[in-house]
Design brief:
Elements: E1 6-7, E2 9-15, H1 20-30, E3 38-44, E4 49-55, H2 58-61, H3 64-69, E5 74-80, E6 95-99, E7 102-112, H4 115-124, H5 135-144, H6 150-158, E8 163-170, E9 174-179, E10 188-192, E11 197-200, H7 204-209, E12 211-216, E13 221-226, E14 232-235, E15 243-244, H8 246-251, E16 257-258, E17 261-262, H9 263-277, E18 284-287, H10 293-303, E19 311-313, H11 331-336, E20 337-339, H12 341-344, E21 348-353, H13 360-371, E22 376-381, E23 394-395, H14 403-406, H15 409-416, E24 420-423, H16 426-432, E25 440-441, H17 443-446
Parallel strand pairs: 15-25, 18-21, 21-22, 22-24
Antiparallel strand pairs: 1-23, 2-5, 2-11, 3-4, 3-5, 6-7, 7-8, 8-9, 9-13, 10-11, 10-12, 13-14, 16-17, 19-20
Bound molecules: iron/sulfur cluster.
Iron/sulfur cluster (SF4) binds next to helix 17.
């Protein structure tokens, strides 16, 4: 699929460890796949909050000298993919504010669906906003609350917002983690081996910093981290789980445990299911790297068709400011993906991808494989057709750009110039990830929105 759909952000929080900002920095490295536009960390030494945020990749934003200025035993961090708001530095997180109870910083993964309504009301009441981020609403709601403790103000504020949020708040002495009642976006807690806790969007951050997974923050739960105490849990909302199934399809790193299950194993299951319900006679199974790799392994294991590396991905390409012209329209994909001609030539190839969004990338891949000598190219997709945009923290193109919203599967097959095309359907996707329809969000495949 390659960049047609993007997770908006990742969050991480460290509490009770003297190397809090360094651990947040390393965790953000592990979470970089969830946002590459900007990165930031706020830390607290118990007296004051310190914040550094900037556009760019985590390794560009921070260095040893900067991390040394982020002192203290607690820190929260964020990587951003710009969507709600824009990509200016003002819209990087953490969002920092001084208010009547002191100082606070917030990081947010998700999207608030009633953000405009709340913002308009706050502006009518005299609030001034510095950014376009829905996260800034929370600062105002917390500042306006008449409760005396921050934890009560957070509860007041989240009762007014709707949508998807995994939030971390940092005050001078405490850290708070809050997840919406649907648990759209993942958020897990771990124990650091050298003292303290970590809370992060994905458990792949835990492995890097030597933390042991404890559990997920429950949907609707507020967790309060306070010095010398076990984290305190408050059930703010009755949980009504609607986890984002796209985390399994594409966003999360395969080495993470998300919603209690191994992402790699779930993707392999999807490939196996695809082989069972959409078999085809072929000589080799190849993945579209990197997203299609686990599902292609599963497809190969179930079908008995040998797995091969048929496409190489160039990981060092980064962003190019030279957009290929119409006459060089295949260049962009070729810069990233190259065919392994000797593997492909004369073969009937099953190529497995995690999804098809606009269809243009798939078309270029099929062409590339045929130009490399493939006898037949059969595209297999380990998710259902993407027909609807996401409003819960994922950047998807408008409906008119989603190929499956505008074409039948046969038409898409002709458009991408494949010999055959098949997708998983919703029921088989849910079966592959051991999920019940009532506890997962599948809106981008079904249009059934919950909020
Ligand atoms: S609409 Fe799709 S991407 Fe968005 S939360 Fe639901 S399943 Fe995930």
């Amino acid at each position: 699929m390659l960049e047609d759909v993007n997770e908006k952000c990742a969050v991480v929080g460290i509490y009770g460890n003297e190397e809090a900002s360094k651990l947040a920095y390393f965790s953000l490295h592990a979470l970089q796949h969830r946002g590459q536009e900007a990165a930031g960390i706020s830390s607290s030494d118990g007296k004051k909050l310190y914040t550094i945020k900037k556009r760019g990749l985590v390794m560009r934003v921070f260095d040893e000298r900067k991390l040394k200025t982020l002192t203290g035993s607690s820190a929260i961090g964020h990587t951003r993919y710009s969507t709600a708001g824009d990509d200016s530095i003002l819209d990087a997180q953490p969002v920092f504010a001084r208010y009547d109870l002191g100082e606070m910083a917030i990081v947010h993964n998700g999207n608030l669906t009633n953000a405009k309504e709340i913002r308009d009301k706050l502006i009518d009441e005299g609030a001034i906003f510095q950014t376009f981020m829905d996260t800034e609403n929370l600062i105002h709601l917390i500042a306006k609350s008449e409760k005396r403790r921050l934890q009560d103000r957070i509860i007041d504020a989240v009762k007014k917002i709707e949508g998807a949020y995994s939030l971390l708040f940092l005050s001078r002495t405490k850290m708070f983690a809050m997840r919406d009642r649907f648990g759209f976006r993942p958020l897990s807690i771990g124990k650091l081996s050298n003292g303290g806790y970590i809370v992060a969007s994905e458990t792949c951050a835990f492995d890097l910093v030597g933390a042991k997974f404890i559990r997920d923050v429950e949907p609707g739960e507020l967790l309060i981290f306070n010095e010398g105490k076990e984290p305190q849990s408050i059930k703010v909302f009755e949980p009504m789980p609607k986890h984002c199934i796209f985390e399994y399809v594409y966003f999360a790193r395969p080495d993470s445990i998300v919603f209690g299950q191994s992402v790699y194993q779930m993707r392999k299951n999807m490939g196996k299911e695809l082989a069972r319900i959409k078999p085809i006679e072929a000589d080799i199974v190849i993945p579209v790297p990197d997203g299609g790799v686990p599902a292609a392994i599963g497809y190969s294991q179930e079908s008995g068709i040998p797995y091969e590396m048929g496409i190489m991905r160039n990981h060092y390409i980064g962003r190019t400011f030279i957009e290929p012209t119409q006459s060089m329209r295949d260049l962009k994909v070729k810069m990233k993906l190259s065919p392994m001609t000797e593997t492909i030539k004369g073969k009937r190839v099953v190529v497995v991808d995690d999804s098809i969004v606009r269809g243009t990338t798939s078309k270029r891949i099929v062409r590339m494989l045929k130009e490399a000598g493939a006898k037949e190219v059969h595209m297999r997709v380990s998710s259902p057709p993407t027909t609807d945009p996401c409003y819960y923290g994922v950047d998807t193109p408008n409906k008119n750009k989603l190929i499956a919203a505008n074409m039948s599967i046969d038409d898409i097959c002709r458009f991408i110039e494949a010999d055959s095309l098949a997708y998983l359907d919703e029921a088989s996707l849910l079966r592959s990830v051991n999920a019940k329809e009532e506890t997962y969000c599948t809106a981008c495949f079904t249009g059934k929105y919950i909020v």
